[in-house]
Design a protein that fits this description.
Layout: E1 2-9, E2 16-23, E3 27-32, H1 39-47, E4 54-59, E5 62-66, E6 71-72, E7 80-83, H2 95-105, H3 115-122, H4 137-150, E8 155-159, H5 167-184, E9 187-192, H6 195-201, E10 204-209, E11 212-218, H7 219-223, E12 237-248, E13 251-256, E14 259-263, E15 273-279, E16 283-286, E17 297-308, E18 314-321, E19 324-331, H8 332-337, E20 345-350, E21 360-362
Parallel strand pairs: 3-9, 3-10, 7-8, 8-9
Antiparallel strand pairs: 1-2, 1-4, 4-5, 5-6, 10-11, 12-13, 12-15, 13-14, 15-21, 16-20, 17-18, 17-20, 18-19
Helix pairs in contact: 2-4, 3-4, 4-5
The protein binds adenosine-5'-triphosphate.
């Protein structure tokens, strides 16, 4: 478990951070928030690259920083692997030498995946003899991830590792990040302001605004809340854990706790577990079961609550499909016209074509092997 509590002010009247949160022993905790909210500063303080005015950072039993007790471990003693936006590889060394540099930094008694395992995990075997200057941006980032992992860190810190890449390169590197997450079995603190990266990678979210933690919790829980800044986004909506039941004629049937969904996205073969983002603006409701309608997903749900919307004239309907919460963003006028009120049963309508490969992502099964092994 990583514990972070920090207070810092840049200059006398500068930006102030006052944030505390926890991150579990493995999996990805995303620090998420708008530009300038303090994400990178927090990461730098955890890495030991910035000394905050006050703070305490602990990793299991180890105290990395405790200003009250004048403890402030140097960055190299914190055993954090750090990956930045730019790969920061040594340009004069081959990929292999860059990776072996990571291995050299690993303490002798540290366990973790070996050189070959990391090379296979990140698919970089054919790059080993090359210099970084002859790699694509995505390849460079995969090597940077490998170098960080080979230093056998106790904690991985990633500061927008995909932000400098174009869409195609991001899509190329994202699955490798997911594989690394499942192989590393250590806490990963991941700074981003891209919601699709949160969907694909994060287990927990720490929402930041102006240097403060607005909320922290599981991604599923926080994306289902309508009182957070997330709800104001156009892509606001819940993340639903699903398993592919079947794929036929370009349609995949997904089971989730509380029903099934049909989608035209290509989520993978039967058995694949994934998360579907059901955007609130893509969900409509009907008070009677619609017939003669093209919409493929028509789910019986209970209307649990009508929450304040983030735009004038709009509300969020909080809907229960079994234990799963869905959100629908509709007009206040429709609430009045349909006489919607908490407790009634309605039909939630979601078009099959609103899911695409960006909103439905494969999540590697969370039954990873022992620490340090690479899942096949
Ligand atoms: N060395 C510094 N001196 C003064 N102010 C700073 C310094 N570093 C950062 N800041 C300020 O602190 C605030 C938080 O910066 P930070 O880089 O942590 O934000 P961020 O959430 O990571 O932003 P982005 O998503 O744009 O990278 C900003 O207002 C920034 O201008």
């Amino acid at each position: 478990m990583l514990g972070v509590a920090l207070r810092h002010r840049f200059g006398r009247d500068g930006f102030t951070i006052d944030a505390s949160f926890k991150a579990p022993g493995d999996g990805v905790t995303a620090l998420f928030g708008p530009s300038g909210c303090g994400k990178s500063t927090i990461l730098a303080a955890v890495a030991g690259l910035l000394r905050p005015d006050e703070g305490r950072v602990t990793l299991d039993d180890a105290v990395l920083l405790d200003t009250a007790r004048r403890v402030c471990l140097a960055p190299e003693r914190r055993r954090c692997g750090v990956v930045f936006q730019e790969a920061r590889l040594f340009p004069h060394l081959s990929v292999e030498a860059n990776l072996r540099y990571g291995l050299k930094r690993a303490p002798h008694d540290a366990t973790g995946p070996g050189f070959e395992a990391v090379v296979a995990l990140l698919g970089i075997a054919q790059l080993l003899p090359r210099r970084p200057g002859r790699l694509s941006g995505g390849e460079r980032q995969r090597v940077a991830l490998g170098r960080a992992l080979l230093s056998r860190p106790r904690l991985l810190l990633m500061d927008e590792p995909l932000a400098a890449l174009d869409a195609a390169r991001r899509a190329e590197v994202l699955p490798f990040l997911a594989r690394l997450r499942d192989a590393a079995r250590i806490p990963i603190l991941y700074v981003t302001h891209a919601l699709d990266e949160v969907d694909a990678l994060a287990d927990r979210l720490v929402l930041l605004e102006a240097g403060r933690v607005v909320a922290e919790g599981s991604v599923e829980d926080l994306t289902a809340r309508t009182d957070l800044p997330l709800a104001a986004r156009r892509d606001a909506g819940v993340l639903v854990g699903c398993t592919v039941r079947s794929v036929q004629d370009g349609l995949a049937t997904l089971d989730f706790e509380g029903g099934t969904l049909v989608t035209t996205s290509r989520p993978g073969p039967p058995g694949t577990r994934l998360r579907a983002r059901l955007r609130a603006r893509d969900v409509a409701v009907a008070t009677e079961q619609p017939r003669g309608i093209s919409t493929q997903n028509i789910l019986p749900v209970t209307l649990v609550a009508i929450d304040e919307g983030t735009e004038a004239g709009e509300v969020f309907l909080r809907l229960a499909a079994g234990p799963t919460t869905l959100l629908a963003r509709i007009t206040r006028e429709s609430v009045a016209r349909l006489q919607l009120r908490p407790g009634i049963t309605v039909w939630a309508l979601v078009k099959a074509v609103t899911f695409d490969h960006r909103v439905v992502r494969q999540v590697a099964a969370h039954t990873p092997p022992g620490r340090g092994e690479i899942p096949t």
